[in-house]
Task: structure prediction
Amino acid sequence: MNIAIRYYSRGGNTKKVADAIGEALDIKALDITHPVKADILFLGASMYAFTVDKNIKKFVEGLKAEDVKEIVVFSTSASDTSTHKKIAKCLKDKNIKINEKHLSIPGQFLKMNKGRPNEEDLIKAQEFAKSIIQ
Result:
């Protein structure tokens, strides 16, 4: 099974989670500027003003079913909001499965969620990734 990790991170929170997932799966996490071909793609994004960044939307819209079979979403957010539904909407009519299991980790933004994601959050991300591929 071919597994890849791609992420978009403005402030570094999503990158930390992507790197933790990569460590757990022994795969290098790369940002969305890198092409992808995978059976399972772990895709990380953050919520910005209650939506996903336009760069993630463009990346997802450019994905093809022959290159990616399934997407597993992980996200960081100052609020308790996941990017899962927003990414699922971008995948409509693409014939790419989106796993119903997804991970949302608090991310630090200004004074909110200070110190997050923390070590406990990163361990949670690693356990989540391992549970997906088992």
Summary: Helices lie at 13-25, 54-61, 84-90, 119-133. DSSP finds four helices and seven strands in the chain. The beta strands are 3-7, 30-31, 38-48, 51-52, 68-77, 97-98, 103-106. The CA atoms of residues 12 and 51 lie 17 Å apart.
